Amino acid sequence: MRRKICVITGSRAEYSFLKPLLQEFKRVASADLQLIVTGMHLSSEFGLTHRIIQQDGFSIDEKVEMLVGPDTPIGISKSMGLAIRGLSESYARLRPDVVVVLGDRFEIFSAVVAALVNRIPVAHISGGELTQGVIDDSFRHSMTKMSHLHFTSIEEYRKRVIQLGEDPKCVFTVGSLCLDHIKRTKLLARVALEKKLNFRFNQRNLLVTFHPITLEKGTSRQQFQELLNTLDELKNTNIIFTKANADMEGRIINTLMEGYVRKNRHKVISFASMGPLLYLSTMQYVDAVIGNSSSGIMEAPSFKIGTINIGDRQKGRIMAPSIICCHPIQTEIRKAIKKLYSKNFQKILSRVKNPYGDGKTAKRIVDVLKNYDLRNILKKKFYDLPF
User: Fold this and answer.
1) Exposed e or buried b for every residue in 88-120, given b needs 16+ CB within 10 A?
2) pLDDT tens-digit profile of 309-348?
């Protein structure tokens, strides 16, 4: 009997991880791939990135609108409620055998809640990780408890999922899908990339993505301004910004960014969404990723470039030696940039290894999902650790 596997995506970054998994599913004769797109993918403010998914050759079975109102606690809560309703209706139409989700955002949390209520098994990718500065940390661990199969990127994260009471037989260490995506993507050469971006690289170049620290109230403006003040000091340096996600206070960051771009068009450019190809291709030619994006932690080390990780958003993640952590204060960011360009640190970059896998994650996940016995999987037992 063919198995209906429903994958859900709600953001640009998450889709870049899921793309190799979707490709792998399309090769499996015994599975029918279903794809639900929601969240930022359907918003013009965030680049209507569902078009990229379709350009990549994937059919979208359902589009679930959910983003309403401002990026405030009330606005996010309303969006989550709308998502649960819309996704429940989609599940009723598609009748999947298993729902596959990745990550920790509120869009995906809503998808898991709806699946649980509809008695559909959930396979969760990237559980067991920590991001102590954001509300996503709680969403992720809650999703672990509502899920039935777990695919973690490293063994330490697998142990953490088991610590949450999940049966070890249902938890698989498979690596990170981001490395699959890098391995499978034919990146653009510099001249072609500059033409696509309509932007010339300088002697030094930085890729900047900064998101709100959602467990802090009212800090986004000050923290991002500290970063902009530091960037203002740099010489012979061009900046490529990607905008913040649909998080609380995300629009504050994007407004500041737009103002900075208007004043510095000779050296700065910004994108609502670059798309996976342009983003990864850009990583080849920049000196570092700066901000607090997970891409600086999980993807940048594969390009042997530095990461300046600012603040607490990614606090708790396993990090390669190529990552410099600093407080969101101008003097600290300045020190981190100085370290980035130091001879000793550049030597470290030349031999850094990415701790998140080998680029074969998608196949491992598919091999489990196409064969795993889903009968009676909904009735979970709590796994107690031996004392």
Assistant:
1) bebbeebebbbbbbbbbbbbbbbbbbbbbeeeb
2) 999 999 999 999 999 999 999 999 999 999 999 999 999 9
Taking Cα atoms as reference points, which of 96, 87, 113 lies closest to residue 9?
87
CA distance 43 to 246: 10
Delimit the domains of the chain by residue range.
3-176+357-369, 190-350
**Parallel, antiparallel, or unpaired: how do β-strands 171-173 and 204-209 relate?**
unpaired
Query: What CATH number does the domain located at 190-350 have?
Result: 3.40.50.2000
Structure tokens at 191: 């001249």
Rounded Cα–Cα distance for residues 132 and 295 (Å): 16
SS3 237: strand
What's the CA gap between 80 and 66, in Å, rounded?
A: 7
CB contact at 8 A, 185 and 174: no
Question: Model confidence over 88-125: pLDDT tens digits?
Answer: 999 999 999 999 999 999 999 999 999 999 999 999 99
Instruction: Please tell me the CATH superfamily of domain 3-176+357-369, with its number.
Output: Glycogen Phosphorylase B; (3.40.50.2000)
